[in-house]
Each structure stands twice: as C-alpha cells, then as structure tokens.
DNA sequence: TCTTGACCTTCCAGTGACTGGAGGTTCTAT
DNA sequence: ATAGAACCTCCAGTCACTGGAAGGTCAAGA
C-alpha cells in the first residue's frame, strides 16, 4: 500500500510517516517507481506509534516500546515500568497546571475587569512582590 | 547593571535574556565596551516576562501583555480577557492529561507485570482494536 | 494521444522557546 | 602580568513535526 493509504489506515499524517522513516522508526520497502510500499507489518508499527504518541510517549520512548514489542522475550514488567514512569510524569504535569490555574483564577477574581486603567493582573505580573500570590519562580 | 546581574535579579538565564532581546521583548542600552546595560525599567520588563512565562503565557501573549502593561490607557478588561482565555486553555490541558492518565492506569492495572512475555500494554498499543480502551485517535 | 489532477518524491526551511558551544574581547583581582 | 570570570556574536541543535517548492508518476477522461 502507498503512503496515502498507510496514512489513512494509521491516522498519521503523510508528512509524519515520512519523518518517522527519516528517524528510523519504520522502514517501508520501495516499489520500482520509488514509491514507499507499506506492508501490513509496517502498518502495525505505524498504528503502534500513533497510539503510543497519543498516549504521550516521546519518540525515544516509542522506540524503546517498539523494540520491546518486537522482542519476543521481553518481560511484561519492563513495559509496565515505562508506563508507570509515564503516569508519574503525567501526574506531575497535572499538578503543575492545577497550581497555575489557581494563580490565574485568583488574578481574575481580584480583577474588576472594567475599563479602569488599574489592573491587579498587570500589577501582579509587574513585580507584585507583596501580593497574595506566593508561588512565583520558575517551575 | 550587566546581564549577569539582570539574570540574577530577574530569575531568567543569561541566554534567555539575550534571546528576548533578539526577538525584541527587551531593548537594553549598550555601554561603551559593548556590554548590555540594564536599567531598572528593563529589569521590570524581565521580571514581568519571567512571571508571565512561568504562568504559561506564550511569548506572543507576553508581548501583548507587555504592550498593555506599557499602555497607560489600556482597560483592565482586556487583560482580564486574555487571562480568562488562558485559564480555559489550562483547563483543557488538565482534562486531556487526566484522560490520558486514566488510560495509562487502566493499562498498568491490566498488566500482570511479571516476566511473562505477554503484556496487555503492548497488546493495546499494537492494535488492540477490541480491548476495553475506547478513546484512541489523536486528540 | 494528450491533458488534467491526484498522488508521490526529495530537499530545504520554519515552528517555539530556548540551550550549547566555539571563538573572541573585556574586566577584575592577584 | 596574568588568570579567570564575565561578557560578546554567531551558528547549530533541541523536539516532533509542518509547510512549501520543484519535480516525477499514475489513472481517468476527452
């Protein structure tokens, strides 16, 4: 099957599939006319990649998962560990965003939001060292 | 003050400050020796940027907020609107991550995690069209 | 047969927001 | 005088694509 069909079947953009070939995640054969020829096994890999990426695994993690996937002797525990690490990362990101949301919500609450030219949000951003918002500093 | 002091005062890395100058977010004067000379007003901008970036505003949003910040006539309502839009974005990201976490947790729960070579996580990633996880497809 | 248009190819450049490094100048302390 | 820190510019790399130019191939219709 050509790249267009592979794209449709896998849910990955054509450009992305070519990119994945570039970085060695998939190695489709070539037809005589130079077109990429995707076998079912290639399509499997692409679907795997689509799914894993949509679950937030990085390209390098996908590479690792793929090699576990191909390795008939890999332990289920290895895959489980990678996934658990990923869950912890997701948890961390959620917590960060929730704290961010809290600060932003406080700012909006404190802001009268009319056409006056004083604004607590701007005040906070421009120094605000003595406002109620304590958790400044980079994450 | 030199870039090193500005970095320390603002909490932004030296490289980042130079980058911000490149893209026109800050315009420090130059001393005779070619060194950047940061005035208090420059430092204000840098602190503003540090804070706004840490709150998840993009560079372009920071540019907008800065121009509102400089504009003595801007309405508080404008700033409030930008912030509210940002909160909605943060909410969306949190929801995405929570759904992602649910799927990953389900996978880990289903995975026996021993040294057997069958693994529900890999099974899910490699097609898994008839597993219990429904929300595949790109976000 | 010719043409149109869809699909395919490669290659180069850009995204966002930095970060790292090379190679060179200036300042400061000893 | 000299060592080392701090500064300078410029170029390249990061991540995971995405867009576009310029051109080759294929299938269908006139």
UniProtKB/TrEMBL annotation, chains A, B:
Keywords carried by this UniProt record: Cytoplasm, DNA-binding, Transcription, Transcription regulation
Boundaries of every HTH merR-type domain copy: 1-68
SMART domains per record: HTH_MERR
Chain segments annotated as coiled-coil in the UniProt record: none
PROSITE patterns noted in UniProt: HTH_MERR_2 (PS50937)
PANTHER family recorded: HEAVY METAL-DEPENDENT TRANSCRIPTIONAL REGULATOR HI_0293-RELATED, REDOX-CYCLING DRUG-SENSING TRANSCRIPTIONAL ACTIVATOR SOXR
Name this polypeptide is given: Cu(I)-responsive transcriptional regulator
Organism: Roseibium sediminicola
Gene responsible for this protein: cueR
